[in-house]
Amino acid sequence: MTSTLSHHLETYLILSTALFSMGIFGLLSRRNLIGVLISLELILNSASINFLAFNRFSMTDKAAGQTFVLFIIALAAAEVCVALALILLLHRRSQTIDIDKVNELKG
Hints:
There is one protein chain. 81% of the residues lie in helices and 0% in strands. By secondary structure, the chain is mainly alpha-helical.
């Protein structure tokens, strides 16, 4: 029984690692702000999967991991709202959302 539970935990961790790797790759390779935003969402989703997997297989309190995931979801929703508002403002001013072409936000 223990090997079966360990196998399922490893499956979740492999899935989470794949999502995290795709998110990091997207952050480093994308020049479009929407692509960068999607990559950040992949990273947050991989963290959520980690919290839920460890919550299910190793913690006694089942609400702890789910609470963290709800905070991550709320953080991701707030991040998307702010980021999309900035992207829309940037697009209206410079007619592009390419990271290399936009230098308006530099201080």
